[in-house]
Amino acid sequence: MKGKVLIVDDDPIMGAVLETRLSESGFKAHYFSTGMEALENVIEINPDIIISDIVMPVMDGYELHRRFRKNPQTASIPFVFLSARKEAGDQLEGLRMGADDYICKPFELNDLLMRMEKVMIRAAKARSFNTLADFSGNLAQMSLNDIIQIVEMNYKSGELIIQNVIRAAVGSIFFHEGMLTNAKKESLEGEDAFFDIMDIEEGFFEFYGRDVRQAEKIKDGNMSVLLKGSRLLDESKSFFKALKDTTVVPVLKSPAIPRTIADQLEPGHLDRIATLLNGKQSIEEILDSGKISKVVFGSILHNLNQAGLIDFKIRKPAPKKEPVNRIIMKEGVYRAVTDIDRRGISGVLEAKGLAAKASIDFIKGSIVNAVFGNTTGKKALYRIFAQKPLQLVFYARPVSVEPTIRDSTDRLIQEGMREVETYASLEKSTFDKRLSVHPSFDEDLTASKKGVDQDEFLPLVKKHGRIRDIIDASPMTDLRTYELLFHLVNMNMVEIKDNERIDIQLVIDSAADLPPEIIENRNITLVPIAVSFGQKTYYDGININPERFYQLLSVSDHRPEINTPRPGEFHSIFKDIGDDNDIIAIFTSSGLHDIYRNALEAKENYFFSYLEQRNRKTFRGEEFRLAVLDSGSVSLGAGLIIIEAADLIAEGRDFEQIKAHVEQLTNSLSCFIIPENMDYARKSGWISKLDEPPGGPGGKKPILGFKKGKLKVIDSLDKKETGGRQMVALIRKQLPDPDIPLKAAVMHGGAPELAESMTALIKKSFVCEDILVAPLGPSVGTCFGPGTIGVACFPVNAPAKPSDD
């Protein structure tokens, strides 16, 4: 079975025909004549796709679509409009409403089936998108249209980076909650840049979900911009296909452009067109200037040419000063090499404007030699590949050199691209480190299992010492030499003379509720938790603060929901930090939500890749240390532990010592919370209704505490009481000595006066140098609600020593 389809059409003949023909084609089809019937049955049917007419009595297709999208259970089901309305405006309106496709009656069954399949595949990709931190792929396999619809269906904010075939970034498209806001390509912005990006058919894409702050330069809806771009692209391609020669000079016959053409132009385009079409610049020169989109310019020229309003003058060619065998290669080096190989010609490709002499020799299209300064062969070739930008000139002539390169062009390009990309990512400061052959190394043994003769390589280490100088003197390629040195260090055959100290970076989640100034001053990396009010998503500690959260909580019809970061997000964070730092990550109790488990999963899945990346970039050959720790608490309970760890890092304490101290604090920390309304904690799943104290809503208020990382009701008090006295009693019960100094914190759910009185009581009852006071942030406030009060503290002890085992 291909899937279940729900059909809605007030025409019983059309409905019956669709039901029969789709059933015969392998679908399980369900037909209803009204939108209300469809709404009543959709949950039970759970269709894979919905097809609906637009013009229907009582409830039209637009309203039916709106109701399906509003319901979380049906919002992601792909929806197709099937209508007798053929006007472009009607189709555009249907797509603007957020439908996945619009099919006009009458239609061919095969066309309907093909488009249904595309919509369902796109919806499946959209669902999988929710599990990916970075969404990427090949433009040959997924069109820009599909990518944008996936982003829109998931209400994603972020940046879509478009890359060419050699994975160099050529443009970016920006989104806010699934809607296009801006695009950039070279000097172009807004729709101009977007339309030129639409013209890129080969290459790759990467989507990075994050809060992107860009000026809103694209105002229309996604599908409106895509439809407009498709029209412009078709007209532009038609024009350039017919023109062929872009060296001609376009000249307007009349400065007055007809309204039918002028109305299609964006504001400012009309003035630019009049300036550009001045009879002085060729089409090629105008496009090279970067002042206007090629797609837009081609469309305008197409319409002007169709209206007979433009002439094209041929420039007299300038006298050729260069010999006929000299060819300027405007493409990049990879394209130039590929073109020479395809044409099978002999000659020398020279790179101009570099400090070192650089050239590549070809015999019948094959690369046989390369020179870069005093290096030759692959080493020189890959160094040429790494130079950007390049001015390339090819001299067609017979070549007679001793071949130093024998691989195919395709293999050289693939291998060279990998070498250039990897080598560029290495930490450049490591190139100045000095190496020496290990004293215990027996020079009679082979240097490595990779077949490198010690007589050829180890003398380079002895003679030059510095990594940069060894790489320059080596006959191997730069990356191959670096990898060999890395291998020899790991084999203890070569040692690094200076061993620099690795810094420690602290990573936390936003449920610790630490004030922004503490996070900034202590150089802490914050992983935000997402908080959603309906379709609107905020990131705790990034674009929403406690004050704004409690305002929304008081006026919103939606109960907020939290979404914790996934393992892929932690992988990205650990990967970025791990180049230069060891990591101590302290997270909210695993008994409350899965942040700790997701971070631990990232560590378990990718640890060895972090280790390899660290050693490749820093060349220290040391162990990479990553500790993922469970605080066993929440809000400022976790916050106090984090501050303690941050202060120890600042003091220069050892990694294992800090880790041991954090683990000790999780056992000695006391954290008690009194929610004003247990409904929040119960609906969040943080505490079971069975754990509530007896007495019902009008009876007792619970006092919550942590036992083995889980929230439990440990006491109760009358509704009229604030709980101060019982909090003090509970804390005293946990202390080995009532007079021991404490580090303490008071947290509150938008109740500063209650927090102030609790702070005064804690100061009066215990020895506290200072008490940290802060509101519960959005992620914790969602689970405890307004009016909550809480206290966390631990006795002040010296940092624990690391264990010997």
Model description:
The structure is a single chain. The chain has 805 residues and is α+β, with helices and mostly antiparallel strands. It is flat. The longest helix has 24 residues, at 595-618. The protein has 28 helices and 34 strands. Helix 23 runs antiparallel to helix 24 (655-668). Strand 30 (700-707) and strand 31 form a beta hairpin. Strands 6-11-7-8-9-10 form a six-stranded antiparallel beta sheet. Strands 14-19-15-16-17-18 form a six-stranded antiparallel beta sheet. It has a six-stranded mixed beta sheet with strand order 31-30-29-34-32-33, with helices on both faces.
Report the β-strand fraction as a percent range: 15-25%
Low-confidence stretches: 88-96, 129-134, 442-455, 694-698, 798-805
The total of beta strands comes to: 34
- Spatial order of strands in the largest sheet: 6-11-7-8-9-10
**First CA to last CA: what distance?**
59 Å
What does the largest sheet look like?
6 strands, antiparallel
User: Overall 3D geometry?
Assistant: flat
What is the SS-derived class? alpha+beta
**Could you report the average pLDDT, rounded to the nearest whole number?**
82
Distinct helical segment count: 28
Tell me the Rg in angstroms.
34 Å
Measured as a percent range, the helix fraction is 40-55%
